[in-house]
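Hi U.,

Before I forget, here's the chain from the pilot set. I'm dumping it here mostly so it's searchable later in email.
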Amino acid sequence: MRALSWMATDLPVSADLEKGFGDAPAAAAETIPPCRRGRLVGGSIEDATGDKDRPLYDLDTPARRVAAALGRRAHCPSPLP
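Structure:
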């Protein structure tokens, strides 16, 4: 994912990060640095799999994915929380 250079506002912006651009917790974590560089103040990582036969992850998987994303956020420098 390239840096979000299209940001043309000083207003806080939150993004729909879909399912974190991958199924694994590590994929969700890797979604965070470019978003932080792009100055997003928030984002959502969905619990939907994108698979019509199994539309939602089991209960543990979304929690691990969000925890990984939050853990990565703590290591990214950014002027915004």
